[in-house]
Amino acid sequence: MFVSFQRVFTLSEKSWSGSCLQYKWQKTVGNYLAVAGPDNFVKIFDRHGQKVNELNLPGNCVSLDWDKDGDILAVLAEKSSSVYLWDANVNKTSQLDSGMKDQMSFLLWSKTGPLLAVGTSKGNLLIYNQQTSRKIPVLGKHTKKITCGCWSSQNLLALGSEDRSITISNHEGDTIRQTSVRADPADVQFSVMKTDERSSPGESTVSVALGKKTLFLFNLNDPDNPIELAFQQRYGNIISYRWYGDGYIMIGFSHGYFVVISTHIREIGQELFQAHNHKDSLTSIAISQSLNKAASTCWPVIHDLTDLKEMYAIVTLDEETKGLDQMCWTDDGQLLAVSSQQGSLHVFLTKLPILGDSSGTRIAYLTSLLEVTVDNQVEGESPVAIAVEVEPSFIAVGPYHVAVGMNNRAWFYALGDGGVERVKDTEYLGTVASMCLNCDYAAALFEGKVQLHVIDGDEQVVQEDRQTKLFPEPDQKYRILSHALTSEFLYYGTDTGLIQCFYFEDWQSVNEYRHTVGVRKVFPDPNGTRLVFIDEKSDSFLYSPLYFLQVNDSIFEIPDFSPAIKGVLWENWFSNKGVFVAYEEDKVYTYAFHKDTIQGSKVILVGATKLPFSHKPLLLHNGELTCQTQSGKINSVVLNTHSFLNNPHSDTSKDKLQSLLQQAVMLKRYFHAALLVYSWLLDAWGELGRACLHHMEVELAIRVYRMMGNVGMVMSLEDIKGIEDQNLLAGHLAMFCNDYNRAQDLYLTSSYPMAALEMRRDLQHWDSALQLAKRLDPDEIPFISKEYAIQLEFVGDYTNALAHYEKGITGNNKVSVCMFLSGRSGSYVYSYG
C-alpha cells in the first residue's frame, strides 16, 4: 500500500512555458522557494504558493543559492558583473559588485559561515564575507570556466572546471590540493568514505562525476590514490548522485536505473542495490536525510532508505505529458518540489507537522498546512475542517472551541451546530509554548508564565475580576514548566517542584504539593481528581489532591516508567476510570491505578503495545488509541492490554485465555473477566473470586462464590458487605485471603482494632494474641493464657503449659483448676483458689 502525498500548490506561468526551471528552497526553515525561468526573473514564493517578491535581472539566471540560515538569496545573471542579494528578513534586494570583468558562472554559499564563493567563465574566483563585507579575489584559480563546486563542513572549497582539474582551497582562497581528471567534472560533493580507521574527522573525500560516465573519489588524506568507479554501459549516463548514511552513494542513470554503492574499501565497486523504476529515462534523484527517504524521477518514486526494495510512494501527475525534470526537498522534509519539462512546478506535502489535541472524546489535528480538522468519532459527529490563517505551531481544543497559533498569537474558533465561526485572536507577552482550553477559559504557557483568560467575553457571563489572571504572582519566584486545564481546575508544575491547583469557582489556589525536584509535565484526568506528573529526573508519580474530601495528599510512584516518555493520556471510557497510558516514540505502556485493594492504593503496569511508525496518540477510549500520522490522517491502534475485549475463538489456548483473564482483572473489567470464566475457563472461578477479594469488590465476590457453591464464603461476605470502614473491611478480606499479617495491620488502623485480637485468638495464634492483648485489652490475657496452656498441654509441652496456666490466674478465680502432670516419679496435683 503506497502513501499518497497531498499537493499543496502548482506554479505555472506563461513565461515559463516549455522550459526547464531552476529553483531552490530556503535553507533550514523552508519558508520560501526561489524559482528562475527563461524570462530574466527570479520569483520568490512562500510555502503556500503566494508570490512574495521578484528580482528583475539583466539576463537569464545563471545560478542561485541560499545562505546557511536561509536569510540571504544570492543570484547570478548573464550580462552582469553584480551578485544580486535578496534579504528574506526585510524583503529587500541589493547588489554586490564583484569587481570581475568576465562573466560569472558559479555561485555557492558556505555550509557553516557567511562566505559566498563566486566563480567566473575564465577560472577566476571571488570569496565574499557577508558579515564583514570583505572580498577576496583569486585570479587564475583555474584556466577555464568554473562549472561546479562544493563547500565542506570545515570550510574547504572544492571547485571543478572545464580545464579538467579539481582544486581544494581554504576559506582564504589558497589552494591546498589540486588534481587533474580525464573528463569534464560535474556535481562536486564533499563527504566521508567508509574506512576501517577514521583517523581524520570531518569531510575528507571529494566526489566528482566525470564525463557523465564515471565517479571519481579523491581522498584529501591520500591524494596519490584516487578511485575512479565505472558502471555498466546499459545504465546510460550519470544524471545525479547523492551521499547518504554511513558512506553510501545513490546514483541515478539516464536509462532509468538507480544503484546504491558503498565507499567502504572492502565493498567498493560492488552494487548493494539496483532498481529500474523508470523504464524510459531518469532525470533526477533527491534524498531527504530528515525523512530518511529517497526520490527519483522521470515520474516520482519514493523509497525508504532503510528498505529500498519497497516503494514507499508514487507521485502521479497526469497533466504532465512530457515528463518531469528536477526535484528538491526542504531541509525538514516537509515539502517536495517537482518541476516539469513543460515549465510548471508542483509542490507536495511529504511530511506534515504532527500537531493535535483532545478534549473528552473530541480531537483536533492538523490535516494540511493551513487546515485543522475537528472530529469526534466516539459520539458519531461528522469531521469539520477549519481553514486557518497561519501555519500553526500549536493547536488546542475544548468542548466548544478550537485554538491555533504561532509565536505570540492565537486565533480562536467557536464550534457550533451552524458551523465554525472565528471568535477572536489574542496576542500574548511571549512566544506560546502550549495552550489548553475548557468551556470558558484558555490558558497559554509562555516564558515560564501562564495567562488564564476567558475565550469569548461577549457571550460568557463572567465577573469582571475573573476575566483574566497571570501566574505566578509577582512575589512568587518560580518558572512554570507545564500546565493543564480541566472543567474546574487549572494545574501547573514549576521548576521548584511546586504543583499548584487553581479552582475557578473560588478563583483561588486550593491545593499545592511540593516535589523534591522540578515538575516538567502534568497530566490530570478528565475530572481533575488525579494527576500524573513527570519530574526533571524523568521519574513519574500519580498525585491525588482530594482536598474536597479532606483527605491527605497521596503520591504513588509509577513503576517501570521509561525516561523516553513523551506524554500521558487518560482513559475516556466512562466505566474505566483510573486507567492511563504513557507513550514514547514507538511504544505505549498501559497503567492502572488500584485505589481500593487489601494492599492499599498502588499503580501497576498492565502491559505494553508497539506503536506504528510516526504515530502520535491523541485519545484513549475503551482500549483503542486514536493516533495522528505525519500524512495528516488519524489511525486507530487497539492496545494489546485490551485484547480480552475481542471474543476468543474456540482454538484459543488455555494459557492465552488465562492471560486475557489477568488483563481484565488488572484493568478492573470484572464483567469481561466473569464472561471469560463463564464461557471458557470454568475452573478459574476461584481465581476470579480471589481477585474480587483483593480489589474489595464484595458484591461481585458474593456472586462469584455463589456460582462456585461456596456457602461459607458467601455467608461470611454477606456479614461484612455493609461495613463502611475501609480498613476494617480490607482486614476481613485479607483474612479471607489467608493474609493474616496484613489483616492484622489493617484491623489495627481501623475503627475496631479488637478485630485483630479476635482473629489471632480464633486462629489460635496465641503468641500474637498475647502480644495484641497487652496493647488492646490486658484483661483478656488470663483467658488467652489458659487456652494457650490447654493447647500446650495437649502437645506435651508441660513446662510452658504450667507457665501459661499460672498467667491465667485471676484475682476472682475461686475455682480449683487441676493439672495432671505425668512425670517419671508419679502424678502431681496442683490446686488454684
TrEMBL record:
The chain positions of domain WDR19 WD40 repeat read: 363-642
Q: Name one GO cellular component term.
A: intraciliary transport particle A
| Matches recorded under SMART domains | WD40
Where does the signal peptide begin and end? none
**Gene Ontology BP term (one):** cilium assembly
Keyword annotations for this protein, in alphabetical order, are: Cell projection, Cilium, Cilium biogenesis/degradation, Repeat, TPR repeat, WD repeat
- Its protein name is WD repeat domain 19
Keyword Repeat appears in the UniProt entry:
yes
**Residue ranges annotated for the IFT80/172/WDR35 TPR domain, each copy included:** 685-775
